[in-house]
Amino acid sequence: MGTVNLDAHALTHVDPAHAKVVLVDWMLGNHCNFACDYCPTNLHDGSIDWISLGDATRFLAQLHAHYVEGLGRNLWLQLTGGEPTQYPRFFDLCASAQSLGIKVAVISNGSRTARFWEKAASVLSSAILTYHDLQVDHARFIETLRILEAAGVPVHVNVTAHPDRFENIMASAEDILAQSVAATLTVKPLRIGFGTELYPYSDAQMARLAARPRRVARNGDEVRKKAAWDFQRGLMLRWLSDGTTEKVRANDLILAGENHWRSFRCQAGLESLRVKADGTVYRAVCGSGGCLGRIGEDSLDLPVVPVTCDRDSCACVSDILITKMPPLSRST
C-alpha cells in the first residue's frame, strides 16, 4: 500500500479548520487607480472590461452548489485586482455572496474615501491592505486602517519593499504598526514582474525582511493577537523527516528559497481557486492543472481531487497556504 514520504516535508495547516476553507482569489478586473513601478502593466491598465453582475452571481451559485452543498466546505471570496473596490457593483456582489453564506475579503490599496470604507466594513469578513510606497497617501491609508479596525474587521497589511527605497519603506511599516491597534503586518519582498525571481536584495535587507517589524504596546493599549481574528488562512505546519512539525510562515519559505513542491499532491482546487480578470478559472494562482473553464460557462469543471504539482517553485503566498502532501511511495 502507499505511504507518505515525510522526508519530502509535507505542508499542512496549523488550524485544521482552514483545510475546509476554499479561498477563491478573484481578480475582478485590471482597473486600478495606481500604476506601481513593479506592477506589470496588464494588471492595472484597465484593458479588460469588468465582469457583469449577472455572470458574477451565477458563478457564486456554481461555487456554492459544488463546494458547500457538494463537498461540505466553506467559501471565502478574496477580491483582488487591479483595485477591486473600483468595481462598479462591488456592494451588490458582496450582498449576493452574503446571501449564500459566503464570506468576503478584499485585497486593496486602501485609497477609497472614508465613506466607502465605513460602508465596506459592514460587508467584509477581513481585509488585506497593500501599502505601495510611491503611490500611497500615507494619512489616508492610516485612516482606512483605523476605520476597519474600529468596526472589528480583521486587517492584515502588506508593505511592498522595493530594494532601492528600502529604509523609507521600513520606516513607513514601523509607523503603520505604531498607528494601528490590532492589524498584523508583513514587509513583502518583491518578485520581478511578479514572477518567481526576487529583486536583488542585499544580505542585510534580506535579514531585515526575515526579522519582521514588531508591534510595541503603547499608552496601556491592549494589543490583540492574530489568533483572535477569523482569518481564512494562517500559519502552516511543515512535517520534518523525524515526524515532528514546525510552524512556518509563507513569506519565510519564499525568503529561504524553500518553496518547492514539484510532484507533491496539492489541494489546489479543493482549498483554493484563482479567477483571472478575463473570467478564466484555475485551481490556484500558479495555474497548475490548467484552465477549468470560464465564468458564465456551464462547462466550468470544478475539481473534486487534488492536483499533482508541475511547477518548479511556489511563488505566491496564497498558493503556499494550501495543503501539500508528498507523492506516495511504496511501503516495504
Short synopsis of the structure:
This protein has 332 residues and is an alpha/beta fold. It is built from 8 helices and 17 strands.
Give your account of this protein's structure.
This protein has 332 residues and is an alpha/beta fold. The protein has one domain: Aldolase class I (TIM Barrel, Alpha-Beta Barrel), CATH 3.20.20. Helix content is 24%, strand content 21%. It has eight helices and 17 strands. It has helices spanning 53-70, 90-99, 114-120, 138-150, 166-179, 203-211, 250-255, 317-320, and strands spanning 2-4, 11-13, 21-27, 74-80, 103-108, 126-131, 155-161, 184-189, 236-239, 245-248, 265-266, 272-275, 280-282, 293-294, 307-308, 324-325, 328-330. The radius of gyration is 20 Å and the shape is globular. The termini are close together.
Please specify the SSE layout and strand pairing:
Elements: E1 2-4, E2 11-13, E3 21-27, H1 53-70, E4 74-80, H2 90-99, E5 103-108, H3 114-120, E6 126-131, H4 138-150, E7 155-161, H5 166-179, E8 184-189, H6 203-211, E9 236-239, E10 245-248, H7 250-255, E11 265-266, E12 272-275, E13 280-282, E14 293-294, E15 307-308, H8 317-320, E16 324-325, E17 328-330
Parallel strand pairs: 3-4, 3-12, 4-5, 5-6, 6-7, 7-8
Antiparallel strand pairs: 1-17, 2-9, 9-10, 11-15, 11-16, 12-13, 13-14
